[in-house]
């Protein structure tokens, strides 16, 4: 491959005077742009012929890793395959060309799909009603906490300003609580990795607004004391919030609403198969138990398929101008309808089976801090043999050489060398066996030739980047040097 052509930025392939386009004849006349809106100098855009542009971006696209071209065991993210029928439906002109401000009478089909997904999520979760407004999981968390706060304020109970969060929680939990103006109180985990009920008892009083929990938790363990915890939290007048990031293994097994949760969000882009690598797209619907519907965002609506009436909920909560990320909503609804009532019940058990199979196959060479049956994911604490100096980061980088995306590393923070693995339910035994074989091989390499693992990756376009420097000083624009202009 010609690295000069494919390894550089598009700006570096630019040559003055080259064109890859021709503008159509102007049919709209000429209009003057106000001086205050005009550029002072021409935009620094690359000048390339069409073939160079096509080859450049086509070859670069091959450097992207996605669930469509390899195993993606990213713990806590549920990187499941997105069936192509989902994409086809979301791309239908009848949906894709809708405008969010057009009259409801002209988009009855879209409203019916929106309403259908709300009802499906209520059935799956055991909650009364959902809003699809939030655009991400964290946005859903904030919305749910706003609902909880509005509930307490409506009863004149303004002193409830604390939210209890387990020490194993996703980082968005305390962040969302803080953004909502609530105080975060941490509850410890036991040596078995679940919420310490005794520690929780000392934290509950009439200043607690809610307790946020993920079940199964971030370690992939089922919180067996949920009924007791929910009873304690409700007894002190607070509400239970369910972080739906780990909902996938619960499908077909149990429902958050039946466990005593009052409010929850669902990551549509995780559990219901929208590709979300690189920060998006997403959608974080929020559901509430019966009696809390009036606190849902005020622009939430439920529209019967046979009627054009729009029903608004009386609430002062506002989280978005429109009704969520509609393309993600369509993908999720298509996924649910494709599986149907019976097959959706197989999702959770298969995800749990795959995770336990990997865990049991590797725990002799990777350290398993909590040796217990897991749900959809589990956490190793690095390699068992620590004498080689090979770290979790090294293992993750070496996996790239073998064509696998690395699992989540250094999270959760409960262990020094955390390596969190989550296979989705639709991975074949052959794929999982291949991943297990590579993980074992890396464990062997770490003893036989540790430097080869420590210096990985060797087969990628670039080696290890300075993550800290990239985060603190990101370079997001290309500056043309004077020598290049000359």
UniProtKB/TrEMBL annotation:
Per the UniProt record, the source organism is Xylanibacter muris
Give the function comment from the record.
The glycine cleavage system catalyzes the degradation of glycine. The P protein binds the alpha-amino group of glycine through its pyridoxal phosphate cofactor; CO(2) is released and the remaining methylamine moiety is then transferred to the lipoamide cofactor of the H protein.
Q: What is this protein called?
A: glycine dehydrogenase (aminomethyl-transferring)
User: Record's SUPFAM superfamilies?
Assistant: PLP-dependent transferases
> What Enzyme Commission number(s) does the record list for this chain?
1.4.4.2
The UniProt keyword set, sorted, is: Oxidoreductase, Pyridoxal phosphate
Q: Quick check: keyword Oxidoreductase in the entry?
A: yes
Task: Tell me where in this chain the Glycine dehydrogenase C-terminal domain is found.
Answer: 350-447
Catalysed reactions listed for this entry: N(6)-[(R)-lipoyl]-L-lysyl-[glycine-cleavage complex H protein] + glycine + H(+) = N(6)-[(R)-S(8)-aminomethyldihydrolipoyl]-L-lysyl-[glycine-cleavage complex H protein] + CO2
Q: Which InterPro entries match?
A: Aminotrans_V_dom, GDC-P_C, GDC_P, PyrdxlP-dep_Trfase, PyrdxlP-dep_Trfase_major, PyrdxlP-dep_Trfase_small
Give any GO molecular function from the UniProt entry. glycine dehydrogenase (decarboxylating) activity
Aminotransferase class V domain boundaries: 159-277
Q: Which NCBIfam families match?
A: PRK04366.1 (NF003346)
- Is Nucleotide-binding one of the keywords? no
Domain of life of the source: Bacteria
């Amino acid at each position: 491959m010609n690295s000069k052509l494919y390894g550089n930025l598009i700006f570096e392939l630019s040559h003055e005077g080259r064109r890859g386009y021709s503008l159509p004849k102007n049919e709209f006349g000429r209009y003057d742009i106000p001086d205050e809106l005009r550029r002072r100098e021409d935009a620094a855009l690359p000048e390339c012929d069409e073939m160079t542009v096509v080859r450049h971006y086509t070859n670069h696209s091959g450097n992207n890793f996605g669930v469509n071209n390899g195993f993606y065991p990213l713990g806590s993210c549920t990187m499941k395959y997105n069936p192509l029928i989902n994409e086809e439906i979301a791309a239908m002109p009848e949906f894709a060309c809708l405008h969010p401000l057009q009259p409801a009478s002209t988009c009855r089909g879209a409203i019916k799909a929106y309403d259908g997904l709300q009802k499906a999520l209520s059935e799956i979760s055991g909650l009364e009603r959902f809003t699809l407004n939030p655009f991400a999981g964290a946005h859903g968390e904030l919305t749910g906490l706003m609902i909880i706060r509005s509930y307490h304020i409506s009863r004149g109970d303004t002193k409830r300003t604390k939210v209890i969060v387990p020490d194993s929680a996703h980082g968005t939990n305390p962040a969302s609580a803080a953004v909502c103006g609530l105080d975060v109180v941490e509850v410890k985990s036991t040596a078995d990795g679940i919420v310490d009920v005794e520690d929780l008892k000392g934290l509950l009083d009439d200043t607690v607004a809610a307790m946020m929990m993920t079940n199964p938790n971030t370690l992939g363990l089922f919180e067996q004391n949920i009924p007791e915890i929910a009873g304690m939290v409700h007894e002190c007048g607070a509400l239970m919030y369910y972080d739906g990031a780990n909902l996938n293994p619960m499908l077909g097994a149990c429902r958050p609403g039946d466990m005593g949760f009052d409010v929850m969000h669902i990551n549509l882009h995780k559990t219901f198969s929208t590709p979300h690598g690189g920060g998006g797209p997403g959608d974080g619907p929020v559901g509430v138990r019966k009696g809390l519907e009036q606190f849902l965002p005020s622009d939430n609506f439920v529209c019967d398929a046979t009627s054009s009436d729009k029903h608004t909920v009386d609430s002062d909560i506002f989280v978005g101008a429109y009704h969520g990320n509609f393309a993600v909503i369509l993908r999720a609804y298509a996924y649910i309808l494709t599986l149907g009532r019976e097959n959706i019940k197989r999702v959770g058990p298969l995800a749990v089976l795959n995770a336990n199979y990997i865990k049991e196959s590797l725990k002799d060479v990777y350290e398993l801090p909590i040796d217990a049956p897991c749900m959809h994911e589990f956490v190793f604490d690095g390699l068992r043999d620590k004498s080689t100096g090979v770290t979790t980061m090294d293992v993750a980088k070496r996996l790239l050489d073998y064509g696998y995306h690395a699992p989540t590393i250094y999270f959760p923070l409960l262990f020094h060398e955390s390596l969190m693995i989550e296979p989705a339910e639709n991975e074949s035994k052959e794929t999982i066996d291949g991943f297990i074989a590579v993980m074992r091989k890396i464990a062997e390499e770490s003893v036989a030739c540790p430097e080869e693992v420590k210096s990985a990756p060797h087969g990628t376009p670039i080696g290890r980047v300075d993550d800290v420097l990239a985060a603190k000083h990101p370079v997001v624009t290309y500056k043309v040097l004077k020598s290049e202009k000359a």
